Amino acid sequence: MTVRTKCWLVVVLFCIAGGVLLLGERAIAARDKKAEIDVAPAEQSIPVLVSTIAERAFYERIQVQGNLKAAESVQVPPRGSGGVLENIFVNKGDVVTKGKTVLFQVEDVRAEQNLEIAQQQLNGAKLQQGEQEISLQRAKAEQAKAKKDMERYRTLYEKGGVSLSQYEDTVLRHTLITAEIKAIQQMVRIAKESVRQAESRVTIAKKDMSDTKVEAPLTGVVTQRFLDPGALAGPSAPVIQIEDLSTIKATCFLPYQVYERIQPGITSMRISMGDRHVDGLVSYKSPTIDPQLRTFEVESLLREPPEGFTAGAMVQADILLSSKRGVAVLRPAVQKRQGQDVIFIVEDGKAKAVPVTTGIEWDGYYELLDARPLIGSEAISEGQTLVDDGSTVRIRSQQVR
């Protein structure tokens, strides 16, 4: 074999070896690619959190801001025509009792004078009445004598003992005395009426005198003192404000759409201040709706409210409109896809889109209407925005609330 032939043989062998190596590398690459394809689905699964669809209670409520006020509050002015304040006997914060605690006193000089004048007028009217009654008694006595004289003269006239003129004189005297009695009786009635009027003036004067001292019209606490002693207080100028803080009322305004659903004595109302609350019932509903704001007022009485629940405070009012049990899913689980509310439940490691109709929302849950077959299913509540119908998912954990 020549040298040249040997060289060609070596080249051919090298080519064959290179071809074998190239085919081996391609085979290995094909095997690795197939392996990658085999594991791809596991690596592309979407991690999600799920929650169990279950039945729970739903409450339809409306929440608004409200205010606390004293159930009873009164501003006390002077009585009558008022006058100069002589003394004020209470201060802010004092507890007062209805009909017992004297609040303030108005200068009583004029009232004393009016009472004295009224008493004098009463005494004069009684004296005049007494004089008229005496005159009436005297006239009746004269009438009785005149009647006897008239009867006696009539007998004498019939027997011819006296003349007709003498008899007629006795008749005239009796007639005149009778007319005088009628006039005196009228004067007596007038005198009695004068006494009655004078007694009324005395009663009024005594009341004006007693009204110079004003008593508490309400049991409660003095919350305002508007004037000081020496000030001129008119009948429309309040001096003291009293509030009964033993019973507080929570007031708020609700939209007209729920007017028919609010029933005093039945509808529940929770009054909250921070982390504290008081449960009660609606005690009052306005008979009309404000035509401008389209709202109406409701109230709830809080008897013996806890510390801090006092007049002037701002609170949150929760009014219960309805309550029921229904199928519940966490609120984040409900997604809007192509204009339709859907949830994704997990079945055999796949996400399944289920169209739903939601009802009321309460405490982070949506009510699912006509969805009892879904009870017990696992709904995706986190990671749901990354999945579609049929997506492979991997449950990381279950949300519990």
Would you kindly provide a written description of the structure presented here, covering whatever features stand out?
The chain folds into 4 domains: 47-57 and 325-398, Beta Barrel (conserved putative lor/sdh protein from methanococcus maripaludis s2 fold); 64-71 and 243-324, Elongation Factor Tu (Ef-tu), domain 3 (Beta Barrel); 78-104 and 216-238, no CATH class; 108-211, Helix Hairpins (Orthogonal Bundle), CATH 1.10.287. Helices cover 35% and strands 37% of the residues. It has helices spanning 3-43, 109-159, 164-211, and strands at 46-52, 54-76, 83-88, 95-96, 102-106, 213-215, 220-225, 232-233, 240-255, 268-273, 276-281, 284-285, 295-303, 314-330, 335-337, 340-347, 350-355, 358-362, 365-368, 378-382, 393-398. Strands 2, 4, 7, 9, 10, 11, 12, 13, 14, 18 and 19 form an 11-stranded antiparallel sheet that branches. A 4-stranded antiparallel sheet has the order 6-5-3-8. Helix 2 packs antiparallel against helix 3. The longest helix is centred in the middle third of the chain and has 51 residues, at 109-159. The two termini are 91 Å apart. Residues 35-43 have low confidence and may be disordered.
